[in-house]
User: What shape does this take?
Amino acid sequence: MLTAMPTAPDRPRAQPRSLGGLLPFLRPYRRRIALALLFLLLAAVASLLFPLALRELIDAGLQPQERGERLLALRQHFLLLFAVAAAMGVFSALRFYLMSWLGERVTADVRNAIYAHVLQQSPEFFETTQTGEVLSRLTTDTTLVQTVVGSSFSMGLRNAVMGVGAIAMLVWTNPWIMAQVLAVLLLVVLPAVGFGRRVRRLSRASQDRVADSSAIAAEVLNAIPVVQGYAAERREAARFDAATESAFATAKRRVRARSLLMGFIIIATSGALLWGLYQGTQAVLAGRISAGHLGQTIMYVIMLAGAFAVLGEVYGDLLRAAGATERLMELLASHSNIQTPERPLPLPPQAGRSALRFEGVTFHYPSRPLQAALGDFTLDVRPGETVALVGPSGAGKSTVLQLLQRFYDPQQGRILLRGVPLPQLALAELRTHMAVVPQEPVIFSASALENIRYGRPGASDVEVQAAARAAFADDFIRTLPEGYATFLGERGVRLSGGQRQRIAIARAMLKNAPLLLLDEATSALDAESERMVQAALETAMRDRTTLVIAHRLATVQAADRIVVIDQGRLVEQGTHEQLVAANGLYARLAALQFKS
Assistant: This one.
């Protein structure tokens, strides 16, 4: 929190996949896309027919003739113009609805896919990826995708069709003039494409800077008591301000480049088209074309100029969305090393087998490849046995539980549950077999009832309350303003540390799994609460295999076996009395604690 977070470089970190990464999300809706494209083409055709109807109005409706015939002809031509305009309106509305629906649907699908994918990642992923950046991609980047799919893409395609149609009509009616105009337009497009690549790189960099500031905000807001406790509000505000200024500076370069691109396209195309229009007026004065022909030409020139102006802006949107899509596809392309095997083995019954076994396990955390968290670690736990893991801080006790839950796989050795290596089991079945009470209890932004029910979603209210009573949480829950229906706040801010821990214990008890993992489960309790919860935990341990991590040795004296870990290695094991008599590391730790 005290150092600035590293920012991404101003260039893509991976090979760009551009907007093509959205194709799998668009494919299920190809019928709607085809229908939207049909309406888009019909609207474009109706728009292209409008100048032809205008030409007929000028050349035929205003010809010298009797007043009655002239009024009738004018009425017919105006009705024709209205019919064309009505067709444009109906087809445009249908196209807009379908494309807007598609943008919303695809955005929701992308968000769902990325969120579900991120939830499957192992902790290794979160060692290098900040939560705030993931949230930025789920919100800001998907919003850009929604804009492109739901609006910019259809606008661009519509104006492309209009532009091509207008060019075709102009070439058909004024071939020589338009040959000159097209040559100039070609000279405009080539540098615009090259310049657009710079806009794309800056768009990607701009989104990276926004993600950096989002990551800072998420980190600080989740630690607001610490920030305020150290009177660091101004310091953190200044750090966030520096991140947003960096994002603004990058966005400013992107906006400047995009503005130059847009201005270049509009000025160059307008100049070329005005040259063609000037040639058309000269043709009318020379008597080579009619006034209606000139009016038709003007309309098509306006359409073409408008199409190029919109396409220039849409091109910028597409470049920006391409950067967003690359970032989203990077998330989807990340793969966890921890996967369920294609053909997982079933978990056999417990009878006659060791509950779990570590065989020569050596493990390094990915972020610390040179330091072994566990080294040649071997441990056999019998069914129904309560094993306490003790040792100095950083000895590797929590690592044992993380490997057992298969958050990581060891580099050497193997771990077996009921005789089956963990990588051969389905992840869901493996973790359903365990109930965990972590050292830092997690409380969700929900009611007390739903927080406990998280351990077993199908549990009844009666079962939830029974688990709360067993964890000595029922009394304080009933004193909350709305009892079990009380909203506990984000991360349980309305509860004390001990109350949060008892909620987590109740959640584990409700799950009622065969293997119970307790990581300092009573560390935040006062002496009286600890005695009550300890009694409840001892009751829960009787029918299941239990691994207990504890720094306070008084809480594990009754364990069937105490395993002492130091610097990632098992150095002692036995009962409390045996280890005290051995006068080793455990005896020294016990002497320090019990004397104090």
